[in-house]
Amino acid sequence: MGIAVEADGDAGNAMALPCAALEGTRCSIYAHRPGACRAFECRLLTSAGRGEIGVEQALALIADTRKRIDGVRRQIAALGQADDRLPLRERYADAVALAAETPADTTSRRRRRTLEATMAEITRILEAEFLSRHGANASSTWPGTPPLRE
Ligand code: SF4
């Protein structure tokens, strides 16, 4: 199917992200997606299915989170990391590392602080609202964000 798989230490194999089958916000191989994708239900979907959150509220949360992620992408690009094929967390780590290598002026320091705060908030939202609390994904966490270095 053309989906890259990488060794993931003791956890076995993992799909390389962003997934090659993802087109915009849709899976281009949805009917034939891997079993792990079929089994995964994010926390928000589970909550909506249980009636713990309304569909409109869930859609608003998705839209807000996507807007925040678009914002962090722009902030990352402003710090010189322009490879949008990489997963967001890798781009963030690269952007912070690039910023640390560059003499810090007031603007770049402010950008780094803004990026760090935005990424921390996105991480909190993803962990609290989207990452699964059931089954094989129960222990999933969004990887920690690297600290800002002065
Ligand atoms: S559902 Fe699975 S195969 Fe489809 S885009 Fe998402 S990660 Fe890729």
**Helices and strands, in N-to-C order?**
EEEEHHHHH
Strand order of the largest sheet: 1-2
In total, how many domains does the architecture comprise? 2
> What is the global morphology?
globular
Most strands sheet: 2 strands, antiparallel
SS-derived structural category: mainly alpha
The molecules bound to the chains, other than polymers, are: iron/sulfur cluster
Count of individual helical segments: 5
The share of residues in helices is: 40-55%
Q: How many DSSP E strands?
A: 4
Mean pLDDT: 81
Which regions contain 5 or more consecutive residues with pLDDT less than 50? 135-150
Beta content comes to 5-15%
| Quaternary structure annotation | single chain
Distance between the termini: 44 Å
* Rg computed from alpha carbons, rounded to a whole number of angstroms: 17 Å
What would your notes on this structure say?
Helices cover 50% and strands 7% of the residues. The radius of gyration is 17 Å and the shape is globular. 10% of the residues are buried. It folds into two domains: 1-39, no CATH class; 41-150, no CATH class. The chain has 150 residues and is mainly alpha-helical. The strands form two sheets. A two-stranded antiparallel sheet has the order 1-2. Strands 3-4 form a two-stranded antiparallel ribbon. The N and C termini lie far apart (44 Å). A hairpin with a 5-residue loop joins strand 1 and strand 2. It binds iron/sulfur cluster. The site of iron/sulfur cluster (SF4) has 8 residues, from loops. Residues 19, 21-22, 27, 29, 33-34, 37 line the site of iron/sulfur cluster (SF4).
